[in-house]
Amino acid sequence: MGILRQMEKFLKGQEIRFTEGLRIMKSKLTNLQNSLSKLPQADQSSSQSSCPPLVSPAHGRKFGSKYLVGHEVHFTCSQGYRMIGPGTRVCQENGTWSGVSVVCKDVSVCASNPCQNGGTCVEALNQYKCTCPHNWSGSQCQYQTQTAPPEWSVMNDPAFSRKPRCAKVDRAQHCSCDAGFHMSGTSDNSICQDVNECEVYKADRGGPLCGHACVNVPGSYHCSCPTGYKLLADGRSCEDVDECLTQQHNCSRGTTCINTGGGFQCVNPECPHSSHGNVSYVKTSPFQCERNPCPMDSRSCPFAAKTISYHYLSLPSNLRTPATLFRMATATAPGRPGPDSLRFGIAGGGEARSMFVMQRSDRQTGELILVQPLRGPQELSVEVEMSEYAERTFQAKHLARVHLLISPYEF
């Protein structure tokens, strides 16, 4: 019992000394923290976590308002100007932007020398005007003044002439012309000449008489549309005929009819062939391919596109920009966790890439935006990709190949 009591006293003494040691240690830690808090902090404020703001180039536009590390800013030039420098700049970790400043250089509309017979070309906004020398006239100085026919009248075609209707009133002869004709010649030898309404109203403030082509006829006019279009009830506007919807196509079995401005195309996109022998695809629908399961020993296969989809868009010429053409989003199966992060970008398209911007519209959706007008007729393709990440780890990539069919007309 005596030994136990001595041990009990010894343990109590050790406990008191241990508690005192903890108290002293906590006091020293508190003093150390207080002294550190008074020193200048080497936190994120001293590191470059963002880049300086960028401004839009003269005669151009800027897309993107975030200047944090890893963010992109895109640039485009207005119509009539071409871009000198990179179309995209990235904020780097050292707080500077990649690439050099973008400049939009003027593309002169007078470079093709449109003025004839010694005329001088004068630049205007997206157009030109010819200053003609003496005895020459016309939009391109193509007419000699003394021989230029009146632009609003048909003079040399007998089919467009009528004899006036004349009557004597109080021994004086009065003559008149039918609607759509005007009096020409002398009082003794007058004739009714057709008024070319297509020329008279060509520069009218209310717009041209016809959406496409105006055809002058004796005393009147009518509008016509190009092949593959139909005239609407207003008698002036044209609308594309959907040959696919009306079954006016000759696409064979196994192909799909795609309506275009003024026509159609028969398409049957094929899945990409294996390039390394370990990535292969199978067609799951007329416009989608899915990757086959990857071999266990393949490192590159999981990084190849999991799905590839094909999309065909028919657009009018000179579509007003910016215009959203295509949206890409992810879908998660019920009961399965989806990705917590998505990244969108333009994967391919050659020179056409500069005409587009891929940006996020919300957390799960990316948009392909046309930022430069496209003049038809032409066809071009652009590839956009969406990558899925979970806890910053790459999960899968999806590729969409967007094929644009630009009509020759602006309707």
Automatic annotation (TrEMBL):
Q: Which SMART domains match?
A: CCP, EGF, EGF_CA
The name on file for this protein is Fibulin 7
Q: Domain Sushi spans what residues?
A: 49-106
Q: Out of the domains of life, which is the source?
A: Eukaryota
SUPFAM superfamilies from the UniProt entry: Complement control module/SCR domain (SSF57535), EGF/Laminin (SSF57196)
One record GO biological process = cell adhesion
Question: Would I find Repeat among this entry's keywords?
Answer: yes
Q: Name one GO molecular function term.
A: calcium ion binding
Task: Report the record's disulfide bonds.
Answer: C77-C104, C132-C141
Species of the source: Cirrhinus molitorella
The entry sums up its family as follows: Belongs to the fibulin family.
- Main subcellular localization, coarse class? secreted
Report keywords, A-Z.
Calcium, Cell adhesion, Disulfide bond, EGF-like domain, Extracellular matrix, Glycoprotein, Repeat, Secreted, Signal, Sushi
The EGF-like domain covers which part of the protein?
106-142
Q: Which Pfam families match?
A: cEGF (PF12662), EGF (PF00008), Fibulin_C (PF22914), Sushi (PF00084)
Report the locations given in the UniProt record. Answer: Secreted, Extracellular space, Extracellular matrix
